[in-house]
Amino acid sequence: MSAHARLGPSSAEAWMTCPGYPNAVEGLHDPTSEYAAEGTAAHAIADDCLAMGIEAADLIGSHLTINEKDEDGNVTQTFTFEWTEEDAEQLQYGLDEIRAFEGEFFGEHRVDLSEVYGVEGQFGTLDRGVVGKDLIVVGDLKWGRGIPVSPVENKQLMIYALGFWHNIARHRTKATDFLFIIDQPRCPGGGGHWRCTLDELLAFQEELRIAAPKTLDPDAPRVASEKGCFWCRRRQQPPSEPGAVSGCKVYDEYVLDAVGTKFDDLDDAEFIGDTIPLAQYDQLSAKRRTYIVKHKKVIEKWLESLHAAVIQDGLNGEEIPGLKVVDGRKGRRTWVDEKKADAFLAQRLGEDRFTIKLKSVAQAVKSMKPDERHMLTDSELFVEGVPKPVLVDERDARPAKATVDEKFDDVEFDTL
After folding, report:
1. What is the distance between the alpha carbons of residues 131 and 147, in angstroms, rounded to a whole number?
2. Do 176 and 39 share a structural domain?
3. For the chain, which terminus, N or C, has the lower number of CB atoms within 10 Å?
4. What is the C-alpha to C-alpha distance for residues 151 and 339, in angstroms, rounded to an integer?
5. Residue 378 falls within a domain, yes or no?
């Protein structure tokens, strides 16, 4: 869906905490990054697989083009991705998992959220949903590598679940148990399962019906928070006033308070070597240390903004004591036109212009005749990948791995 609701489920962490968030970001363009476009491409592949009953490996070698468009529909940027064997292997597990549930499947389904919020004109697009006799499954694909996302009390999924229940599920089943699945195959520690009941969702709905109307006030206040500010477009804007680091003064003050200092405290401080003496970690209270660690991510984002601001100061000719701006390493060289490069190298390198290696298991299975594939899949020529242990919220519905002590309990020893 190209349309976006003012109170989108993906930004619930922001507007439920910060009533002024929708006003603060209104009119701000959120340019598509390569990572976001890559996620859009993966969603398209997943949707095709689920809709047509095919496997992720069947599309290896496909090229997907994602266009960014402005408000007038003009293409401003284009991203092209090739679907690889690695991509297919990472996506397939989540496809198999959602297909294993019995019930009616819904994919890329737009749900009306007006009743959920108590505010008209709001909606969202659910990635995956299954309406079963005893269980309602709500799933979401996260293709990002960097930030682990947990399904436990995930506001975005809980909102989708409520919209799915109001619009569809309650008319098809008496089930009141929900299973939330976040499929984040490329990020260790990301994704997982979480169960909750309809009563818990309806209690959360009451919180939504309090928070959503507050955002309609044109003078709604801004309130900073770790999760709410992390992706905020207002925060990512250039400094809005002298001395600011980001585009939101409330966010600046929030981070400065988190680290226990203010800019004013540093203005008259004297350098010792090349540093200004700040509070040492062992001089901070236990609560302060814990608070800073819990807010590490949002502080890191603030420091990134600060770093960019100092570079811009240098480029503008302003004083940046003890630092200067220089050219760094060049980025990776890329072909302007692969077809022209291929023609050029064909004359000079011939077949040496290609890197050749043995096909992977997934590629080999795809290349074989359907009636012969069992000869490979039933053979002992390959082994299945071993899942790596990851850390997740203790409320994740997946069973914990056996501990070393538990494994020894299952071993019988002969007595001497």
Report:
1. 29
2. yes
3. C
4. 44
5. no
Entry pTM: 0.69
| Mean pLDDT, contiguous 10-residue spans, the chain (416 residues) | 74 95 87 84 94 92 86 80 92 93 94 94 93 96 88 95 96 97 88 94 97 96 88 84 78 76 48 46 64 74 78 80 69 78 87 79 79 85 73 72 57 47
CATH number for the domain including 187?
3.90.320
Give domain status of residue 388, yes or no.
Answer: no
Question: Do 15 and 50 share a structural domain?
Answer: yes
Do 288 and 171 sit in the same domain of this protein?
Answer: no
CA pair distance 392, 127, nearest whole angstrom: 22
Segments forming the whole domain that contains residue 266: 226-315
Written as one string, the DSSP assignment of 299-354 is HHHHHHHHHHHHHHHHHTT---TT------PPPPP--S-HHHHHHHHHHHHGGGGS
**Vertex 325, ends 322 and 327: CA angle to 5°?**
140
Domain count of the fold of the chain: 2
How far CA 170 is from CA of 166, 175, 177, in Å, comes to 6, 8, 12
Looking at the fold, whether 161 and 231 belong to one and the same domain comes out as no
